[in-house]
Amino acid sequence: MVLVAHAAVGGALGASAGRRSPAWSPLWVAGWALLSHVILDAIPHWDNLFALGWLIADLAAALAVAAIIARLARTPGRVFWGAFLACLPDLEHLLVGWLLPQRIFLSHLPWFPHGQAALVPGVLTQLLVVIMAIAFVARQRAAGAPVDRPPRQGL
Ligand SMILES: [Zn+2]
After folding, report:
1. Interval between CA 54 and ligand 1 midpoint (Å)
2. Average of per-residue pLDDT across 44-71
3. What's the gap in Å between 89 CA and the centre of ligand 1?
4. What residues does 45 pair with on adjacent strands?
5. What is the distance in A from the centroid of ligand 1 to the CA of 57?
6. Fewer CB within 10 Å: N-end or C-end of the chain?
7. What percent of the chain is modeled with pLDDT above 90?
8. 139 Cα to the center of ligand 1, angstroms
9. Distance of CA 107 from the midpoint of ligand 1 (Å)
10. How many angstroms does the Cα of residue 87 sit away from the middle of ligand 1?
């Protein structure tokens, strides 16, 4: 998928990390963020990895969505860490043939079922992913569960 979709899901995972464990674990976020990249790449989508203008717009949109999620969750560090890691595997598209002899990330390997779709349905799929990720974090916030609360001390 495009960066903005990966950033939205990675950001939402980062935002929810504190709800899963008393202490935020960067490794927990890293594992789920990277796994989310694989899962999202398997969903049929449209992307254009080689147009510089598109990449810049996509990166700007990814930062904007991560900022929205960080504001909703009030945990910018976790959200940006999750968003960054969820986007990181796509960096290899820029490095292949230059610093990397071939792509090495699971969902970029030739045999992986990298879902492709035409422009309109392929963009709508990703828009839906972004909206769902933002809605997920907004719902957590509305439920009054502060994501960044410290672990309870005793009783
Ligand atoms: Zn990818």
Report:
1. 15
2. 89
3. 6
4. 116
5. 17
6. C
7. 52
8. 27
9. 6
10. 8
The environment of the single-atom ion ligand 1, i.e. residues with CB closer than 5 A, is: 41, 90
**Phi (first) and psi of residue 26, to 5 degrees:** -60, -30
pTM for this prediction = 0.86
Q: Single out the residue of 155, 133, 114 nearest to residue 14, CA to CA.
A: 133
DSSP string, 89-139: GGGHHHHBTTTBSS--SGGGSTTS---B--HHHHHHHHHHHHHHHHHHHHH
CA atoms within 13 A on the CB side of 39: 12
Cβ neighbourhood burial of 123 (10 Å; 0-12, 13-18, 19+): middle
Q: Token digits for 46?
A: 């449209």
Measured in residues, the chain has a length of 155
